[in-house]
Amino acid sequence: MVCLSLGCIPCAPGGPAMRGYLLAIFLSAVFLYYVLHCILWRTNDYGYHQFHPFLCAADFKNTASFYGSDKFDLPYGIRASATHFRLALSKLQNCDLFDDFDNVPCKKCVVVGNGGILKNKTLGEKIDSYDVIIRMNNGPVLGHEEEVGRRTTFRLFYPESVFSDPNHNDPNTTVILTAFKPLDLKWLWELLTGGKINPNGFWKEPALNLIYKPYQIRILDPYITRMAAYELLHFPKVFPKNEKPKHPTTGIIAITLAFHICHEVHLAGFKYNFSDLKSPLHYYGNATMSLMSENEYHNVTAEQLFLKDIIEKKFVTDLTRE
User: What is the mean pLDDT of the chain?
Assistant: First the structure.
């Protein structure tokens, strides 16, 4: 009998040659199952497909044209901002997606939100067990390892939400600028070239220094944000004049990114307690849910419905669902 970690194969008459033949068939079947499992994870109602999510200096205009991003202004395209994109991209060292995980065909990912529900959940060890860990904004790891883990593969940010304290930098993390306005790209270019930051035009003061090295930085293709807005949250392309345009939160953009680069997606920290405006908004700090209710730039109801839908349809697993 030949025993493997996945089971045992009875030995058949014919000696070592036959056993080797059966072993080859068994391993081929295991490999085929593994590949089919990956393919099936790519098949769902939202039609996600493999997509390189980061813009590259050499061909970002061609990529934008292919995916229609040249027909939209920021935050969902490059039209009218191509010069800003070109300048910022010229200072980055590469646009690679993965290094160590390129040879892993089936990536299991967790998107870690910043919700207060992560408090006292002690999910840190579980989160660190994933192939890919995606975080967003300035949700800290330092000092919260037991709750949210230590590792970070990708961290999405914008100028007003990025860390400025070098203690929060992990050299193994790839940080992803999610540009919402031309100023965001100008901000990155100024910091990479040693320029002086003018804080005017930002909704709050942006980081005035950059703790990350150029090799760590990527720029997210607006196609991902556009998918989040129009295909997942079903936002209108034109809002009434008396209503502020709504944009996806960084968390929903991170989930959209995960669906394009991962084969299995889990979530943590995306549940909020709207019935108690005094409950904690984040697992860190003292902000309360009242801040979320006052936000005019996001449609929280649409996002919660989307999350409920993908959880119920088992497109994702929610680690913090009670």
Answer: 86
